[in-house]
Amino acid sequence: MIVKKVFFFLVVICLSYVSYQHDLVIDENSASNDGFQNRIIGGVIPKMHKFPFVAYILITINDNWCTGSIIAPQYVLTARHCFSYAVNATHDMNMSIVRDYIIVEVGSQHKGRGQRFRVRSIHTPSINRKWFDITILKLDREIEIDNITTSAITLRKWNPRFREQLLTVGHGKHVVGTHIRKESSYVAGSLTVTAPNGGFCKANEYEFCAYGKGEGTYLGDSGGPVIKVIDNKYYQVGLIVSGYIYEDINKTTLSDFGKYLIIERFCPGIEAKTQRTAICAER
Q1: Does residue 40 sit in the same domain as residue 170?
Q2: CA quadruple 86, 89, 92, 93: dihedral positive or negative?
Q3: Which positions make up the signal peptide (predicted)?
């Protein structure tokens, strides 16, 4: 078994050395009809653009990338580490500097084909003056929401339940067995909620853990949404941040002990930073 701690923003590097930290109406019927397998590691590429709220985020300093979600016409939610450590893995960059090197693409499931936006400002919600791995990007202009190619996902208050199945979508590397592919499209899969201190994942009150054989998230998925499906409607309840990747004993499958932020803990800050254009739905 090999174990590596990883941030989920993309770094082009050999697996052996990998270390990474990972009411709008849309076509909600796709939430239950696609039969997603239990993983982005091993997940599926949707045949159509079924997640129009997913954003592809490119950091042009060194061509790293992350995933994000449209939460309001001018705001995208993602992970802070995608930018704070964009140049140096040990040096926390000033957000006002890295802002000029961020490109946000929306409107397509494929990298490089969406409408491009620059970032006007970066906001990090805090709780009791403590900072977490979550960031709101305010774009240079509003996204035209057509509920076909672009939409805003509804945030929802939620507490993790043991063994609950959740959906996730990311622009990261696609892992099938132990084979790693760089896809042009985002990849969809699911997560299984585990005990808060099970395996290699140690979660605090703002986080939850998810693990399953042959499932999880990977490089480039950081900042992507963790989704709960209720009455065939997608709600974002979590955020992809970090995890540990390991092989099974037969070296045929990669799995992930992932750590994810709970959106509910950050609702007041998100609503304030977006001038309440993004609202968390009640349970």
Answers
A1: yes
A2: negative
A3: 1-21
Q: Are residues 233 and 244 in the same domain?
A: yes
Q: For residue 75, what are its two tokens?
A: 């705001």
On whether both 134 and 217 belong to a single domain, the answer is no
Gap between the Cα atoms of 30 and 23, Å rounded: 17
Do 176 and 43 share a domain, yes or no? Answer: yes
pLDDT at site 15: 30
Give residue-wise pLDDT tens across range 163-219: 898 998 988 765 655 566 667 889 888 788 987 776 667 888 999 988 766 555 656
End-to-end alpha carbon distance in the chain: 39
**63: three-class secondary structure by DSSP:** coil
The reported pTM is: 0.81
How many structural domains compose the chain?
Answer: 2
Same domain, 158 and 261: yes
pLDDT tens digits, one per residue of 4-45: 344 544 433 233 323 334 422 333 333 333 333 333 444 678
- Are residue 259 and residue 191 in the same domain, yes or no? yes
- Residue 208's Cα: distance from chain center in Å? 14
3-state helix, strand, coil in the chain (%, to 5): 10, 40, 50
What is the Cα 227 distance to its own chain's centre? 10
In a domain, 18, yes or no: no
Q: Which residues pair with 180 in a beta bridge?
A: 175
